[in-house]
Amino acid sequence: MEIDPDLLRQLLPTFKAELDDRSQAIVDGLLALENAKQAGARKPILDTIFRAAHNIKGAARGVELNELSDIAHALEDLFSRFRQGELEPVPALVSQCLEAVDRLRDAAADLLAERPIGFDIAQFVGQLAACGSPVPSKPSATAKSRRAKPAPAKPRRVARKRKSAPARQAAKTRSTEPKVAGGQTAIPTPPAPKPIPVVAPTPKSAKVETGRVPVPTGAGLAGKTAELSSSTSASPTPAASEIIRVGVDKLEAIGAVGEELQLTRLQIEDQYAAIQRLHQAATLLTRDWQFGLTQLAHAVPGANEQVRSLRQTLESTRNLVTELRHIERDVRAGAAQFGLQQTALIDRIRMLRLVPAAMLLRPLARSVRDISRELHKDIEFKIEGDQVELDRSVLDAIRDPMIHLVRNAIDHGIEDEATRKSAGKPALGSLNITVSRHGSEIHIEVADDGGGIHPDQLRHSALQKEIFTEAELNAMSEAEILDLVFRPGFSSKQKVTTVSGRGVGLDVVRFNLRQLKGDVHIETAIGQGTRFLLRVPLTLATDQGLFVRCGSQQYALPTTSVDRVLAVKIDDIVAVEGSQAILIDRNPVPLRSLSQTLGAKAEDDTQADALNIVVVARSLERIGFVVDEIVGEREIVIRPLQTLLHRVRFVAGATMTGSGQIIVVLNPDDLLANALQKAGRSDVIDTHAPQQKAATRILVVDDSITTRTLVKGILQSQGFEVISAVDGREAFARLEAAPVDLVVTDIEMPEMDGFELTEKIRADERFERLPVVIVTSLARDEDRQRGMAAGADAFIVKGVFETQSLLDVIRQLVED
Predict the structure, then answer these.
(1) Residue 90 near residue 15 (C-beta atoms within 8 A)
(2) What topology is assigned to 544-677 in CATH?
């Protein structure tokens, strides 16, 4: 019975995932097989890889990919001969089996992409059948009939009609295997040094085992799928009913919904803040209304009708305040509940995207084996923490950096056997990878016990390539010298090999990590080895953003790139090599204006006593950007720009506030690169500009917080600097601590009233010319006369108080 084409199309992604899992299990088993010396240790490994090949064969036939089934069947026969003791799994045969797995994966990629297979299937299967025998063994009747008389393949009924298998092979046949005596074809095998001891933790524990690679079943998916478990416990062998396979595109769609809910949560939080402000304003209005009503009743006798009408309005205002308080409480509770649920949903979605680091590290064992055999080095490869989970997109992005670091460690770092023995080291080199989680970051350590990196060699290479002058290199610290290995085109190795030495590699490591908002740090000790520490985020779904203002425009900076936020006095700015800078931990950090960098208009800061500075860091490089205001920090969802805007300078994307305002998210790497190129060309402040007159400083004294806040707000809005005190005793103490230009005081206060304060000010020769303005609700003539007698320069009654009257009096007294 033929399979329905639609069902076949649906089965292909599942088959691809199973093929990736099973083929990786075969690779892991083959690497472990090299190190298993006893028959008892080999048996479970051989059983595992035999079953994996058998399952691939059956699955390939199920989706009508018979070419893959033929290769898997040949591998199954070979593994069966291992199990029966007919063949010994020596390194040469293990290499041939690994080559077969590679061919199996390549053929699958060609078939699923509906293109001709890049090699002759029948020829390759024949080579596998001849493995381990000086004379090709006679194939079985079944295998012989399959190879001698290949049945014409059925047309593929997936996506679109494809050519049959023979037609595809005829269209493109590639055979790179060399001929040997007698015309027999063999798979080329490189010289085989000692097998590589490969170490990895079991799925149940992070404990390091030696001498073998465990082959976990169902360790995850590859390609475009991920495994989801319905159980929160991490069982190493879950039942089939507990696991489903879901495409990454579906997870991304769910994640997009979660991000939209996050924006909704931000909107609710902004609305709650607005209701809070409205409630506070209504409360202050009610208090002021009550105060004005009381003053009206005392100041205007007989105004009973007006007072009664105002009392009704006041009651309505109080009801409004009560209603706002209830709304604020309900919105707060709803926002808190929604926030908890949304956070839980986002966390669960992120968990769905998390995969174990083993998906990246297990294939690296094969790379270590191949590279070390090519370079004739014996390497002990250990893995710790591969059960730590991180976002699949992060895992994919660090794949190339990890491969580069492994290649670099084997080729550049670990010495050959003779060199190690002469240095008193064991002949077996060590390469360790450790994965650990630190909060929202994943740390990956790649360490070797090689010869280390000598700074003098890096200096010599930098001089030879004319990257820096000798004077510039002498001024660099050792950490800065070591950082040269991450520069594009830099290599300290003179000999070019097929593995490294072409001036590419480590710059890719840093570039890829910075794209992830991560970084890499290097430590080395001569003769002892080198350690690379990679820091990457756990997930890329959301980020924390620091909001800053330049002029009228707000911007956001990812907090992962922000080293610190400072308020620096003008006097603390220093000149270093013609550029303005500040000292942080005794090291100069150059200053740049963020407004000038972005080409935006900044506020005039010539009158400011201090500057708001955001220090942006990237590895060893730090720049302080001056901004007009630090608005605050909050969680953001960074949206990428449209295709036509991808290359917009300084911009990494955009985010949206709860009110719907679009905020540009800046690219820290672009900002740093631009700032470092323009060293010394733009001062953040003109130190030669004439000093501006300092703002008038006013002391406001009143025991009523409402009145004190109201007067303070009025004065500050007009550019005055305001300090406050709750009574006369505190006010006089503030006068003695710091000078002021004018005093605005109430009369009725505890401890020391306004009359007593005015008299004490006038009695002190230090303050005898200090202007004093009394603002009070006492409207009697005797009170006015007592105030003037105490030495007040002006007397204003609150009942007839107007903002402009107070400002006019203050300006007149200050100017005089």
Answers:
(1) no
(2) OB fold (Dihydrolipoamide Acetyltransferase, E2P) (2.40.50)
CB atoms within 10 A of CB 340: 10
The phi and psi torsions of 295 (rounded to 5 degrees) equal -65, -40
Do 5-192 and 697-815 come out as alike in CATH topology? no
Written as one string, the DSSP assignment of 293-353 is: HHHHHHHSTT-HHHHHHHHHHHHHHHHHHHHHHHHHHHHHHHHHHHHHHHHHHHHHHHHHH
More confident position, 185 or 427? 427
Structure tokens at 442: 């994943």
User: How confident is the model at residue 444, as a pLDDT?
Assistant: 93
| Beta carbons of 698 and 810 less than 8 angstroms apart | yes
Q: Tell me if the domain spanning 697-815 has CATH number 3.40.50.2300.
A: yes
Burial (0-12, 13-18, 19+ Cβ within 10 Å), 230: exposed
Provide the mean pLDDT of the chain: 75
pLDDT at residue 642 in the model: 63
Between CA 669 and CA 673 the distance in angstroms is 6
Strand pairing of 794-797 and 772-776?
parallel
Domain borders along the chain are 5-192, 248-354, 357-537, 544-677, 697-815
Class (C level, CATH) for 5-192: mainly alpha
The fold for domain 357-537 equals Heat Shock Protein 90 (3.30.565)
pLDDT reading at 324 higher than 60: yes
Which stretch of 199-203, 300-304, 497-501, 747-751 has the lowest confidence by average pLDDT?
199-203
For the question of whether the overall pTM of this predicted structure is more than 0.85, the answer is no
- Percentage of residues of the chain with pLDDT beyond 90: 8
